[in-house]
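Translate sequence into structure tokens.
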Amino acid sequence: MVLQQSAEGGLVQVPAEPEYQLSPAMPAATASTDRGLPPKRYGGQTFLVDILALATAGAGFLSANVTSGNPSGPGIALLVLGSATYLLGSPIVHGLHRNGGRAAGSLGMRVGFPLLGGLIGATLFRSRSGGDTGAIEGLVAFGVGGAIGLVPPIAIDALVLAREPASRQDAQPNKVQVGIVPSRSAPGASVVLVPPAESSYRFEYRDPRRIEAGK
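Result follows.
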């Protein structure tokens, strides 16, 4: 309440008009921004999966005696397991990081590069031998070229594809805080709407009854 002179010359009490004020904004504790964050990389995960896949496939190849004509069952199982892990392991890692497009690209590389390497190896071997090669020698050349083709997808996945955009890293929407805090300009309490941190002002409403009570 405030005192105001009436038409008869006396003083009467009238309700005070609500007071509104723009004051410099204090940063909102819950406001966050992800701008300027570097991309988060997870290439170590794809690289570890590939190393385990190659080790499993290599152990299976050595123990299966593929070239002997009487391959062992456990060795073949390890070879198939390692090959499947190489083919699908890193794409699954991309999928777990919600990078579906990169998972598809990784799978395509892991099919295409070894096939391309195998074809190049077989072609080079045939051209160097004058075309007079047996089936075993051609398969060996194809295998060597395919093994070389295993390397580029591993490097591209770990160094290029295995990263998350900055916008996905702990991104939280900007929030507006609503609360009752002490007013610095007058006693009492204020209802304050605090906008996101990048805003320059906050809107403040002070209850006149609390201000008068504080006086």
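Note: The CA atoms of residues 45 and 139 lie 32 Å apart.
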